[in-house]
Amino acid sequence: GDSVTQMEGPVTLSEEAFLTINCTYTATGYPSLFWYVQYPGEGLQLLLKATKADDKGSNKGFEATYRKETTSFHLEKGSVQVSDSAVYFCALYSYSGAGSYQLTFGKGTKLSVIP
Amino acid sequence: DAGVIQSPRHEVTEMGQEVTLRCKPISGHDYLFWYRQTMMRGLELLIYFNNNVPIDDSGMPEDRFSAKMPNASFSTLKIQPSEPRDSAVYFCASSSPGSGIGTDTQYFGPGTRLTVL
Predict the structure, then answer these.
(1) DSSP states of A41-90 as a string?
(2) Are the C-beta atoms of residues B103 and B1 closer than 8 Å to each other?
(3) Which residues have C-beta within 8 Å of that of residue B13, sequence separation ≥ 6?
(4) Cα(A31)–Cα(A25) distance, integer angstroms
(5) Which of B41, B43, B91 to probe the A interface (max A CBs under 10 A)?
């Protein structure tokens, strides 16, 4: 079945450092790819998404490019802030026919940014 | 828009008791999802509905778990009887009709933190 593998956390960075969180996937079809973020005590919220190969999703300074050849969707940000401290989830949605679609989340990567 | 609403936010109960979690999706959304989040297993999809009809309940852990969606604006997840291993954060999410299956963004509620003693 479909699967998502994220880099293990936790990740601790100083403010203004460069961030990369790796995400790779396996899927039989043509999935849509998402990054969700979960701030402490809250539910997940969409950060960015890409629905086809070579698409780049971006939001709040974060970017991720859908790379079909490497089956990857790595999250990057050039300069992190303390307010970016959260858990980040890579997710894959693919349609498996008859109105049923596969929803797969990675295990999440906890990011802590220190001043 | 108020977003996805879940109640209660916190629930503490004793083993063997019945627990009912509630969710109100965003108005107009036709998909509703129930998830469970634990440190050990991460985020797991339990069940989802389309137009109030359960589509896939293969993630429901056992017969003690049941979910209903009597109308477009309300869903429940019930655990009877509850066990300590059911302790987790339970999220409800909904999604809006999009341009195609698999591209719909899911909007999550704040979650219900369940503790079974």
Answers:
(1) TS-EEEEEEE-STT-EEEETTEEEE-BTTTTB--EEESS--GGG-EEEEE
(2) no
(3) B19, B82, B114, B115, B116, B117
(4) 10
(5) B43
CA distance A25 to chain B (A): 16
Task: Name the residue among A83, A115, A113 with its Cα closest to residue A12.
Answer: A113
Q: What SS3 state is found at B85?
A: helix
The DSSP line for B47-84 is EEEETTEEEE-TT--STTEEEEEEETTEEEEEESS--G
Nearest-by-Cβ selection for B103 from A42, A51, A103: A51
- pLDDT for position A28: 80
* pLDDT profile of chain B (117 residues), mean per 10: 91 97 93 92 90 91 94 97 96 75 75 97
Token pair 């070579």 is found at: A54
Place of tokens 């108005």: B27
- pLDDT of B99 reads 45
Q: Is A51 within 8 Å of B48 when comparing Cβ atoms?
A: no
Collect all residues from A whose CB is shorter than 8 A from any CB in B. 31-32, 34, 36, 41-46, 49, 51, 89, 93-95, 99-101, 103, 105-108
Quick one: tokens of A113? 């940014």
